[in-house]
Write a structure and sequence with these properties.
The longest helix is centred in the middle third of the chain and has 35 residues, at 92-126. 74% of the residues lie in helices and 0% in strands. It starts with 11 loop residues before the first helix and ends with a helix. By secondary structure, it is mainly α.
Length: 167
């Protein structure tokens, strides 16, 4: 798993937890099977702290849909604890499978449930949504440069400076 600025939500505490989550998942992904127990336990400890912090924020701010979000955290933690038991018995495949599922689960969870929480907190504290600055990734710029409009305008002999003036 690799950190992406798309995971930034505009709440420093939650953003830091998310960066740590990505680093912990990556550490587990990169660890050889025979050494998996330590990094997986570190990930499990992180999940307990991470979800505990978000759950407290939801309760303290009376976030309306908190129970659904808290329940999702509890389900992930339950699975992670079960996998820890299985890993201690040597079931590396189940551990790898859970980590792969966390990689798929996290972006959607962050962009839907966590972003709603961040918006709620920001609106209550500051009166509006958070402002988040993100870097463009090369993969995001390339499609823009290859877009039909840019290609057709460049073929028509219009210089980049003229295109900027026209837009």
């Amino acid at each position: 798993m690799i950190w992406e600025d798309d995971y930034l939500l505009g709440n420093p505490e939650i953003d830091e937890l998310h960066e740590e989550f990505v680093a912990m998942v990556r550490a587990v992904q990169e660890t050889p099977d025979e050494a998996l127990q330590g990094p997986y336990m570190a990930l499990l400890d992180h999940l307990i702290r991470h979800f505990g912090a978000e759950d407290r924020m939801m309760v303290e701010t009376e976030f309306p849909p908190r129970q659904c979000h808290i329940d999702e955290h509890a389900a992930v933690l339950s699975s992670a604890r079960e996998v820890q038991i299985q890993l201690s018995l040597g079931n590396v495949v189940l551990c790898r499978s859970l980590v792969a599922e966390l990689v798929k689960w996290f972006p959607k969870h962050a962009q839907h449930l966590d972003s709603a929480l961040v918006h709620w907190i920001s609106k209550n504290r500051l009166g509006g949504k958070p402002l988040v600055f993100k870097r463009f990734a090369c993969s995001e710029i390339r499609p823009l440069l290859n877009s039909e409009w840019v290609v057709s305008r460049s073929r028509a002999g219009v210089s980049p400076a003229q295109r900027r003036l026209e837009s």
